[in-house]
Amino acid sequence: MMEMFKKMIGDKKEYKMMMARVEALPEDYQYVFKKIQNYMWKFTAGNGMDMLQIQYELIDLFEAGAAEGREVLEITGDDVASFADELVANAKTYVAKYREDLNESILNRLGKK
After folding, report:
1. Which residues touch 55 (CB under 8 Å, ≥6 apart)?
2. What angle do CA 17, 90, 56 make, to 5 degrees?
3. Are 40 and 93 in contact (CB under 8 A)?
4. Which residues have CB under 8 Å from 69's CB, separation 6+?
5. Using an 8 Å Cβ cutoff, are 53 and 47 in contact?
6. pLDDT tens-digit series, residues 65-97
7. DSSP code of 51?
8. pTM for this structure?
9. What is the model's pLDDT at position 46?
10. Could you give all domains of the chain from N- to C-terminal order, each with its CATH number?
């Protein structure tokens, strides 16, 4: 129980540090990041920690773009939803987990695995 509590505190601290980086970005970047982040939460598995690495990479990308003086849509393109879909494509999502569980249960039952 104590380990879980420590991990939860550490996760919150890490999240706050990550969001401090976001708050340092230009306003348009912040807005787009938060919209993408909100979209990503819909695809997360479990407690959302699977999306943190993707979000760190997005922050790195946005920091580099802002430093170069680029507009945020120069980085994401006008179809931000497709950009976000590409980000989460390799993340383990609930849908992927459900698909995996379905196939595994059937294959196990039928002796194919």
Report:
1. 18, 37, 40
2. 15
3. no
4. none
5. no
6. 999 999 999 999 999 999 999 888 867 666 677
7. G
8. 0.73
9. 60
10. 1-110 (1.10.1900.10)
